[in-house]
Amino acid sequence: MAKFILLCLLWGAACINLAVAAPPAPYDAAAIPKTLQAYANAVVRLQESTTEVKDLDQVIFRYKEAITILNSNGAEYADIAVYYDKSRQLKNLKGAIYDNNGKLIKKLATSDFQDVSAISSISLFEDNRVKHYTPRVNFYPYTVEYEYELRFKHSFYFPDWQPQKALDIAVENSTYKFTSKPDFKTRLKEFNLPAPRKETSTADGTILEWSAQQMPARKSEPYSPPAREFITMVEIAPVTFSYEGISGKFTNWQEYGKWAYDNLLQGRDKLPPATVAAITELVKNTPTPEEKIRKIYEYTQQKNRYISVQIGIGGLQPMKAEEVDRLGYGDCKALTNYTRSLLAAAGIKAYYTEVNAGADKKSYLPDFASAFQGNHAILCVPVAQDTIWLECTSREAPMDYMGTFTDNRRVLLYTENGGVIARTKGYPPEQSRQIRKATFTLDEKGSLQGSLETEFQGTQYDNRDHLILKTGKEKLDLVKEIYPINNLEIAKYSLEAQKAGTPRLTEKMEIKAPGYGNTDNNMLVVPVYNLTRNLNVPKEVRNRKQPVTINRGFYDEDEIIFNVPATFKPEYLPEAVNIENEFGYYRTALTFSSGKLTYSRKLLLKEGTFKPEAYDTFHTFLKKVYTADTQKFVLTKQPAG
């Protein structure tokens, strides 16, 4: 008995000692420094990335992250999503959820993750997949930890290092280690490093290491430049590589494009003889190359439809032209290559082009060649004194129109002599026009009826191009969402595209709007300008750090005539506005004559990059535009006789 008691005492003492010596929970939210909580909705506590190049066809990437979610605004950063496919195998995926004190709530096994296709719902072939998990936690803060391993069967590209995935994420500690054999050469592109990289060479190879600690979140600043101009990031590209069993080497865009042309495009432009004959007949007696290009482009638009297809060499290689011809569909790669093949059948040379598509106008890095800087394919067709660009996935886009999806950015052309960096078509503000004329009649109850006609050019063509293929009620419902007019009734509507010459869309409407103006004691209060949703006024920013970047400029011009009731006269008309500065100009005038109120409005916004201290002027400019746009005029009913 005494022995048993002694053992219990010894065990109890050991437990006490263990409890005293136990380390603190690693993810206690209270341990986050105050400096990292400012502007942060989440904090990366730990981030470890390792890339190990064992051979040209064997690369292992290991990743571990723990991120503390501080509030509901950071909840999206708790989602875990790991992408994989046949060329990158996913291994050892696991995770855990911790409470605010850093105590374990739940361990995550691979079986807890949902495995779904990573291709859109219209995809025909589904090779890319994603393991996904969304925590269900009803309190804050909490921490999500996860880790995994990807085994690449190629060395064509490597995961980059970007410790701060969003501006409202702070980082306690992030490291990236890249190891390779002595004879494996790489090229680096480093952005805004907080500390120089560490490089070690041994008999076994080369080790490159980067680290970042105590990175605070950043205050959101509207109209900031592209993120890679101020965030920390490292991109690594190989010199020699293997991809899907094909070896290659590149140190610049010319060499990359040559490899891509020879291995991705070569021999995939053959067409059935009947199609070649049809194209020959289609362009017969067509006098100019431009008209031939137009006819062939419209032929492909009518014949084919877009569908996502992830096949070929790692999803990079387009379907063969003859397959697209037979099936009548393809993805951006396939339809671009098919159009290129049809043009070749007519004796017109065109170049398959990689582009990073999206509204933010992300360009290829001219001095750093690497795979997957693009996400889309378009076609470049040189002609005398000019270049024609074709968006081959659209069934309604005009020839040589680059909307906000692909406009004015550096892209990569595949040519038989190698890659060439070029720039897509851009539109100065004066060419991105919205010109509107309207004539309305007001009655004594404030109801409005009349007609308006609006012309859209340049990037403002995008304002209505999504309506071109819509019909009936669906189209009219979408139009009502565009115009901020209460009780809008559309009696007639048409949208006509002029694709020849300068592309433009012309919208014509006949409308009614009961209660457009408010009546009060023989007074009629009417909005001066209610035909475009008010220009967004960004928040005020004190001590701004980033330059002001306006990605696209535009020009709006309106002339609106209000026929007022015969018994009403103006009581109050807003004064004319005339503002002009480095960002553009805004001019309005409202006059009354012979029972008609005529309102004119002109707004020019310039694109460009401006000094941070200019933001206050820009903010004030937009605020004044908003104020003037929301003014009202007042009519008073005159006594009888």
Automatic annotation (TrEMBL):
<keyword id="KW-0732">Signal</keyword>
<dbReference type="Pfam" id="PF12969">
    <property type="entry name" value="DUF3857"/>
</dbReference>
<protein>
    <recommendedName>
        <fullName>DUF3857 domain-containing protein</fullName>
    </recommendedName>
</protein>
<feature type="domain" description="DUF3857">
    <location>
        <begin position="60"/>
        <end position="218"/>
    </location>
</feature>
<feature type="signal peptide">
    <location>
        <begin position="1"/>
        <end position="21"/>
    </location>
</feature>
<dbReference type="InterPro" id="IPR024618">
    <property type="entry name" value="DUF3857"/>
</dbReference>
